[in-house]
Amino acid sequence: MKALTLNLTLCSDSLARNKSAVKQAKYLAIADALRQAIKEGQVTPTEVLPSARKLAQQLSVNRHTIMAALAELVAQGWVEAKERSAYRVVKNLPIQASRQVNKVRQTQQSFDWKFRFKQDLPVTAKVKASQYSYNFSGGQPDIRQFPFLEFKSHFSQVCQRPKIDDLSYGDSRGETELIEEIATYLRRVRSITDKELMICNGSQEALYMISQLLLQPGDKVAVEQLGYPPAWAAFERSGASLIAIKQDDRGLDPEHLAQVFAQGKVKLLYLTPLHQYPTTVSLDITRRMQIYQLAVQYGVAIVEDDYDHEFHYDSQPIAPMASDDPAGLVIYISTFSKLMFGGARIGYVVANDELIEQLAAYKVLMNHKSNVLVQQSVAKWMQQGGFEGHLRRMTRLYQKRRDFMVLLLQDYQSQGLPIHFEIPAGGMAIWLDTGKSVVGLKEKLMSNGVYIQTEVEFNMIKRLPNTEYRFIRLGFAAMNELEVEQGLNIVMKALYGVLSD
Ligand SMILES: Cc1ncc(COP(=O)(O)O)c(C=O)c1O
């Protein structure tokens, strides 16, 4: 019983330190300490506990407090009352905490889960941008620029006057005021009308739900050969297979698409028309129309992923395909991940009412609804003009950063490095042809504090042997000029060896 006494002494010390806890639940803390002693094996099953009087003396507490603690342990199934007010530890301890379970834990490796499928955790889910001194991750906004104080005032406002009804379940489509704000914004800035809108937990949730609702094993999904793997993963998870469509410097190749559609079974076409991901090429107007006509002809729905629409610098961005969709086959998805940050998890999907209704029903299965307080705060931020102000500031800043990175790269070109790139009209990254293989470059740079993405991560045909990967995607939005200059220097040194300053 020596160890048991010691444990309870510790407990009485902590009780003495925390006076308010003493008042409130002294007996619970004592019950806790006793339970711990039993779990650790200091008193074993069927062993009799010291008498209530003794325990009360040891802990300098009233005997009634000890009796209340013991009653608590009886109720929880750890001890049982014996004759003449003695208590002993039960023969079979409550299962979760017992030493027997611990013994099982020690001998068994792990439970044999029968997974229906297994999926690797993508690198992006593990990588913390802050681990890297230079983060060239292609779609990363500069989170340091986000107006947290301003946003906090909206959040406080929302918490000060909570809308009790909204804080419960229901409304899986999202908060009405946010839906209205976004719908008005889309009508004004992206010319999208006549469709329904629903808020999602980021556009990834929309992609996943669309896949689950519309695809089945045997279906095909046409995707850009260079593209966005999280979307591919969602499509493949439904049992559909992907078909890579060729692309060039004008975007997706409609001729190749027509051949693929003609072979049948294509259910969806996933496109990033404004700033092709990852190459940043804008799909030209003629091709957009050809692609739309093909989709109508073959009855294929188009998922238009317009993930960074606002960041377009040289002209007004081309209106989305969803803005001119007489056949109603475009499912438009977009996100606040670039306008705010990825962790905000606010995305939305715009489509015809029948599809939105099904998506809303599916979302109930997954998670009921997206976070209400964040939605309401974003709605206030939009209503009061902060959102568009931030957008204007960021567009100017990112344009400057794009121009700066272009200058640096042109400078490297003039030093004779074999790099090639098109100046992107918008987006947050430059797609750079390094003129040499980039296999292994990412890992090398990561150990030097630099995060970049290389072509192999985006290429659908990566399963083909001997493909030559020469491109890297250099995000220019997340870092200031000094950081970009220093980081780029490390990238170029890793690629081409020592450079002249
Ligand atoms: C092509 C593309 N689509 C969508 C997203 C945004 O996804 P989410 O809204 O789930 O954060 C990203 C973000 O990196 C992206 O690059």
Automatic annotation (TrEMBL):
Organism (species): Colwellia psychrerythraea
Record keywords, A-Z: Aminotransferase, DNA-binding, Pyridoxal phosphate, Transcription, Transcription regulation, Transferase
Protein name: Transcriptional regulator, GntR family with aminotransferase domain containing protein
Sequence ranges assigned to domain HTH gntR-type in this UniProt record: 24-92
One MF term in the entry's GO annotations: DNA-binding transcription factor activity
Keyword set includes NAD: no
Taxonomy, superkingdom: Bacteria
EC number(s) stated in the UniProt entry for this protein: 2.6.1.57
